[in-house]
Design brief:
The complex is a heterodimer. By secondary structure, chain A is of the alpha/beta class. In chain A, the strands form two sheets. Chain A has a nine-stranded mixed beta sheet with strand order 3-2-4-7-1-8-11-10-9, with helices on both faces. Chain B has a five-stranded antiparallel beta sheet with strand order 6-5-4-7-8. Chain B has a three-stranded antiparallel beta sheet with strand order 2-1-3. The chains are: A alpha/beta, B mainly beta.
Chain lengths: 382, 137
């Protein structure tokens, strides 16, 4: 039995969204149900996803499921930081495959403005190993900057190549009405921006946002009743790596992404060159370059050249993040994976508008939690 | 001295390897070694997952190390803003283990390059806190 995605939706990604977390989730949920033949009562279970350290509400699954009219069906919470909603999709897939449930809603959200920016800063410092690394004042940009530095040293990747990733993402977010940043930025602007953690500058870093996303999964039999354009889950891979920087063996790539990709490709019985369009976790520019290498879109060390040669643009060898990615669309942590899946589903349905990749049949989503801590790769097929 | 005095800001107060801080006070940077399989751990661990043993012993690191990667940060979490900018690095010790540590302020940033030799050394901080840092050889 195959498992399909029958509906996707999301809110705009923005700062100061004017909604509470329940209202954000409702907006994404309604957006999802609008075009398909499904009502809340037809959903057998819900999986709510976010990064809990940014939530004020304890156990948000209860609140969200109530507000969406999903009681008394079972609901619970899934978390893997920035890849929480990809984890939710994997769990939902397993529910359907095991015949425990037929229709499952995965709702991811984050409201970064739920807590004060001082509180956000404090939590960010605790993202590393709190016993051995946080006492030195580390945070996400520093971690990815160390990967960037090692990648530049090993492969000759340049700051200009990093900047080109942002230039591309801004070109596509300009075309995405739900993106947070709608302005095209130039190479010069990127290179002159203030340093955050060298070699990473302001435009090399994604911006946190408020937002929600929704993905509805269904069994093959139900899927055909709910929509005329089901998109099939062809492959799912997931892996983990050490939280400690000191225990990492690879400083120029994310081993968990390589492993998750290998699993997903094997399950889907495809090769990297079969992928028509991809969404990868570009929380930093270096992250997109490493993702292209780790997923086999190019050889290790050639990710910088891939974007420099415009091969990750529409019309290139492998269009990557043509919705603006995390860098320009914004990154509401728990909602990001669902938003990436939404983009690929719309591409495979031929509904991606100005950023449509012609004839896209196979799409891939790469969603990472932490600094290569949790790796998730999902392959979808028309 | 409990473990919560380790680093600029301590988040962990109780640990089975809190003797690490007492050694640090005496100028020694210690790793742990599993007596059963011989594997060396830094940061120190009280337990070896390879053979599920808690029979570990302390072993001093020489401090000789090579730079693997580094960054200078201009944006910091709560409690570290006053130190900006500061540098963080990953080094490989001659004993084989890796260490994540800040650069000492006396390191000349302009001359830092991956592969250079550095020395890991204990460092006393204000308010009876203690840490380790990377110094020029």
């Amino acid at each position: 039995m195959s498992v399909a995605i029958v509906g996707v939706g999301q809110t705009p990604f923005r700062r100061s969204c004017g909604s509470s977390i329940r209202e954000l989730c409702f907006e994404a949920f309604r957006d999802t149900l609008t075009d398909i033949d499904l009502v809340p009562k037809g959903i057998d279970a819900s999986i709510i996803c976010s990064a809990p350290e940014y939530d004020k509400q304890r156990s948000p699954a209860g609140l969200i499921s109530e507000y969406l009219g999903l009681n008394p069906q079972p609901t619970f919470y899934a978390e893997s930081i920035c890849s929480s909603s990809s984890t939710g999709v994997k769990v939902g897939y397993s529910f359907i495959k095991s015949k425990l449930h037929d229709v499952v809603a995965v709702i991811g959200f984050q409201k970064m403005s739920e807590i004060s920016s001082a509180e956000v800063q404090e939590r960010m410092g605790r993202g590393a190993d709190i016993q051995w690394e946080s006492p030195f004042g580390t945070m996400m940009p520093a971690g990815y900057a160390m990967f960037a530095r090692a990648h530049m040293q090993t492969y000759g990747t340049s700051e200009e190549q990093l900047a080109r990733v942002k230039v591309k993402s801004s070109k596509y977010s300009f075309l995405n009405p739900l993106a947070m940043y709608r302005r095209v930025v130039t190479l010069e602007e990127c290179l002159k921006a203030r340093v955050i953690a060298n070699p990473l500058k302001m435009f090399d870093c994604c911006a946190n946002a408020d937002g929600a996303s929704c993905v509805i999964l269904a069994s093959e039999e139900k899927a055909r009743k709910i929509t005329d354009t089901p998109i099939w889950v062809a492959g799912i891979g997931a892996a983990s790596d050490t939280l400690s920087t000191t225990a990492r063996t690879n400083l120029t790539g994310l081993t968990c992404a390589v492993e998750a990709g290998r699993q997903a490709y094997r399950m889907a019985r495809i090769k990297p060159e079969d992928v028509d369009v991809a969404e990868v976790h570009d929380c930093f520019t270096i992250a997109e370059i490493m993702a292209c290498e780790n997923l086999g879109f190019c050889k290790p060390g050639e990710g910088g050249k891939l974007v420099e040669d415009s091969q990750t643009y529409i019309g290139g060898k492998i269009p990557v993040n043509v919705d603006g990615g995390l860098l320009s669309k914004g990154h509401p942590i728990g909602a990001t994976g669902g938003s990436q899946i939404r983009t690929i589903v719309l591409q495979l349905q031929g509904q991606a508008g100005k950023t449509q990749v012609d004839g896209a049949e196979i799409g891939l989503v790469h969603n990472i939690g932490g600094i290569g801590l949790y790796g998730n790769v999902t392959i979808l097929r028309r | 001295m409990s473990f919560s005095s380790f680093g600029k800001i301590g988040y962990v107060s109780e640990t089975k390897v809190e003797d690490f801080v007492r050694f640090l006070e005496k100028g020694k940077i210690m790793a742990t070694k599993c007596r059963r399989c011989g594997k060396l751990y830094f940061p120190p661990r009280a337990d070896c997952p390879d053979d599920l043993s808690s029979d570990v012993t302390w072993q001093e690191l020489s401090g000789h190390c090579k730079l693997l990667t580094f960054t200078t940060v201009y944006f910091a979490p709560t409690g570290f803003q006053d130190d900006l900018p500061y540098s963080l690095a990953l080094v490989q010790c001659e004993e084989g283990v890796k260490v994540f540590a800040p650069f000492s302020k006396d390191v000349d940033e302009g001359k830092v390059h991956i592969g250079m030799n550095l020395r890991l050394a204990p460092k006393k901080l204000p308010n009876r806190r203690i840490t380790y840092e990377l110094k020029q050889t």
